[in-house]
Amino acid sequence: MHVVRRLGPWQAVPMAGPVYAGGNVMKMWKWRDLFGRPEPEAPRRTKPGRQQQRYDCLVDEMKKQWSIRIHRWRDRTSGCAWELRDRDGQVTRMIESPYPRGPVSCAVFLHEVGHHAIGFGIHRLRCMEEHLAWEWAIRQMEARGFNVTDRVRHRREQAMRYALAKALRRGLKRVPEELIRWLPESVERR
Length: 190
Fold this sequence. Notes:
The chain is 40% helix and 23% strand. By secondary structure, the chain is an alpha+beta fold. The protein folds into two domains: 5-35, no CATH class; 50-182. A hairpin with a 2-residue loop joins strand 2 (10-20) and strand 3 (23-30).
């Protein structure tokens, strides 16, 4: 019998070999190692409006243009971008972000795509990479006619203040000119 059942995050696969207690010997493998992880479907409404259709097209276009795979869609306005490299040197670009349903979730999605667009590891400072990814996302929203609201700007400001504070906690000595506007008031400026 060659029935393949999913057992949580692991997959049981029948092996050729001895039979014990009337069944095949099973070897456990991770599901994604055998079949690859299926891409999560976009959370779609039954009857999307015109703006939601524009967001859907944006997602499809960005995935195709930057060869990005979605690891999962998040419920909150946070995201993560990373690259996977296999032994052959093949790069898989991955992101997690909220599905674009409004200006803020669209900005966060584009910000995560922006990490791949500007390139990983090119910028020495992580806070500078965050800044450039946010700038890229805002430019993309403006160029495509999406509404850049005050809430989008506030979300960027929150993210940049957090990234800069983190860099300062980790020992950043010189703050680039572009990031000075997000310095906390408690930091002495020279």
